[in-house]
């Protein structure tokens, strides 16, 4: 079953140009399907539309177009989106005047499946006292509290916008593993926007890359990692690839390095897939390689 089906989604804002207000489109999604139980990574540069998309999916922004959630047509600010989801759209938005134990009680009252005892245990593991006020915590520990509360809410839909902002490397890895464990155990649908691309790669089942408010790339992680290859060659061999669509071309220790779709590589070299992977001059692309290639596209000359 599809969790979300988006068609012709637009988000417009009014922008003052010095003389008058004019409408500006900051997000335009022709079509996007998010499958139940998937972990979708929403990637893109600053200002690409990631947060805008997540707010729409969380039911916290107006929009134009057609949005279905579990087969039901959804309107802007629709309460049906709020019933079965937990979200972090601003990691610094926890109420500063509450104690941690009060937050736990609040979440326990809101979410039927919230595990308050496990939450307290996780907070103890992170050396966060229940009697501390949110305002007394560092930004990193506030992020930990927010993530632990959201994960333990165990909602069918979890939306996370830069949820590990301010966390150290070890804490980020720990929290990513908690997110993955939650999904594997309960088949939650998780949508996460992050700039920590290498760190979240192991989490994701699917990827959407936004650029200037539009989808630049969307695919499953399996397809992306299988279909792109990093090629390292001597400059003298570059002519063989002159008609290829070379991505992220740059100098390397061997001469030149660039990314190709495997079909183009095989066409040039007459390789089978097995031979392609065994070629010592090649390596499978990482998600961050694919991200850089598609956000800095430059045609080969």
Walk me through this protein's architecture.
- With 301 residues, the chain is an alpha/beta fold.
- The chain has 2 domains: 2-212, P-loop containing nucleotide triphosphate hydrolases (Rossmann fold); 224-295, Alpha-Beta Plaits, CATH 3.30.70.
- It has helices at residues 50-57, 100-110, 116-125, 139-153, 169-186, 197-200, 221-227, 262-269, 273-278, 287-295, and strands spanning 2-16, 21-35, 39-44, 64-69, 72-74, 85-88, 157-161, 189-193, 206-211, 214-220, 228-233, 247-252, 255-261, 282-284.
- The strands form 3 sheets. A 6-stranded mixed β-sheet has the order 6-7-8-3-9-10, sandwiched between helices. A 4-stranded antiparallel β-sheet has the order 2-1-4-5.
- The protein is globular.
What is the name of the CATH class of the largest domain?
Answer: Alpha Beta
DSSP helix count? 10
CATH T-level fold name of the largest domain:
Rossmann fold
Mean pLDDT: 89
State the end-to-end distance. 45 Å
Across the major sheet, the strand order is 6-7-8-3-9-10
Task: Summarize the amount of helix as a percent range.
Answer: 25-40%
**Quaternary organisation:** single chain
Question: H/E order of the elements?
Answer: EEEHEEEHHHEHEHEEHEEEHHEH
Name the descriptors.
single chain, about 300 residues, alpha/beta, Rossmann fold, Alpha-Beta Plaits, six-stranded mixed β-sheet, four-stranded antiparallel β-sheet, 10 helices, 14 strands, about 30% helix, globular
């Amino acid at each position: 079953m599809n969790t979300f089906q988006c068609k012709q989604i637009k988000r417009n804002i009014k922008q003052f140009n010095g003389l008058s207000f004019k409408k500006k489109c900051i997000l335009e999604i022709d079509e996007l399907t998010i499958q139940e139980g998937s972990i979708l990574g929403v990637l893109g540069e600053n200002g690409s539309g990631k947060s805008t998309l997540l707010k729409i999916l969380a039911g916290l922004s107006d929009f134009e177009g057609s949005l279905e959630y579990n087969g039901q047509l959804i309107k802007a600010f629709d309460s049906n989106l709020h019933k079965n989801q937990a979200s972090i759209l601003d990691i610094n938005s926890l109420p500063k005047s509450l104690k941690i134990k009060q937050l736990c009680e609040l979440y326990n009252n809101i979410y039927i499946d919230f595990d308050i005892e496990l939450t307290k245990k996780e907070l103890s593991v992170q050396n966060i006292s229940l009697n501390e006020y949110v305002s007394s915590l560092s930004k990193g520990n506030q992020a930990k509290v927010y993530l632990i509360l959201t994960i333990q809410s165990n909602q069918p839909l979890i939306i996370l916008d830069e949820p590990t902002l301010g966390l150290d490397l070890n804490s980020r890895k720990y929290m990513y593993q908690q997110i993955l464990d939650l999904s594997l155990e309960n088949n939650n649908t998780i949508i996460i926007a992050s700039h920590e691309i290498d760190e979240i790669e192991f989490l994701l089942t699917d990827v959407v890359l936004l650029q200037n408010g539009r989808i630049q790339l969307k695919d499953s992680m399996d397809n992306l990692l299988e279909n792109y290859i990093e090629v390292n060659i001597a400059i003298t061999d570059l002519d063989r690839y002159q008609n290829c669509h070379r991505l992220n071309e740059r100098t390397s220790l061997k001469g030149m390095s660039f990314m190709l779709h495997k079909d183009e590589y095989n066409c040039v070299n007459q390789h089978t897939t097995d031979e392609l992977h065994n070629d010592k001059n090649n390596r499978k692309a990482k998600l961050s390689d694919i991200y850089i290639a598609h956000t800095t596209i430059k045609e080969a000359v």
